[in-house]
Amino acid sequence: MLPIAYAPCYAHPLPAGHRFPMLKYELLPEQLLREGTVTAADFFEPLPPPVADILRTHDAEYYERLRQGRLTRQEERATGFPWSAALFAREVTILGGTIECARRALAGGVALNIAGGTHHAFRDRGEGFCLLNDQATAADWLLAHGHARQVLIVDLDVHQGNGTAAIFRHEPQVFTFSMHGARNYPARKEQSSLDLPLPDGTTDADYLALLADTLPRLLAEVRPDFVFYLAGVDVLATDKLGHLALSRAGCRQRDELVLGLCHRHGLPVVVCMGGGYSERIADIVEAHANTFRVAAGLWG
């Protein structure tokens, strides 16, 4: 059994300019089912979490303005999305999915959210297509309920996890590790527990060598008992926004390295998909599907 959070609202219709990158939320489950990597029984439909779980991480005044559609025009522009009730429902459902994934990973070792990885959301504002921070909310949930004492967030999206870094800047029980494009969004970076900025054009060999040198050391030093993995595929050479040069095979090797280490160390891990903006939707879906194939090979 490979627990996978998926809700129809993940791919809820948006204005024309936003529809292409949202297609992956429909196509990825179809691909995984068609090829037999997963079965229909592996999927569960998440629900929004209790508001108290959201407010453990997010500012109450910001949450209420977001819920009621009262963001300023400037705040809305910063998120990249026009507000709608459907968009709000999508965001809180993503949070519920990642929290439920954490619950299931505690029982079975791994769980994956088809969406999630909304790492640009701060406590009191949204940015960069992120309105509420799902991995931060789930990490706070784990700590509050005594399910973890030390959390490691491994953020390998091409963009720095600035919101996550800011949220946990003064929280020693959450170690934030972000390996990202040095000259990519956001222009103003926050300080993670560990940042590894990469030059444009970084290839498979350099990327994987750095990750293989860093992550085992972090596991030994941080000694986490729970891991969140943000597996963005905007590191691909085909990505329109990423500026790195990983192949699809290299991206899969990245997943094998991260998930293999978690599996060998017996660390429960929640995987969220993060970004992917290649010209061909097939490149995005195939790279994301590899993450699920790797997880199924280890835990299936």
TrEMBL record:
Q: Where is the Histone deacetylase domain?
A: 23-289
- The keyword Hydrolase belongs to this UniProt entry's keyword annotation: yes
Show the Gene3D superfamilies listed in the entry.
Answer: Histone deacetylase domain
InterPro entries annotated for this entry? HDAC_classIV (IPR044150), HDACs (IPR000286), His_deacetylse_dom (IPR023801), His_deacetylse_dom_sf (IPR037138), Ureohydrolase_dom_sf (IPR023696)
Keyword annotations: Hydrolase
Keyword field contains Hydrolase: yes
Tell me where on the tree of life, at the top rank, the source sits.
Answer: Bacteria
Q: Which PANTHER family match?
A: HISTONE DEACETYLASE 12, HISTONE DEACETYLASE HDAC1-RELATED
Q: Which family does it belong to?
A: Belongs to the histone deacetylase family.
Supply the name of the protein: Histone deacetylase
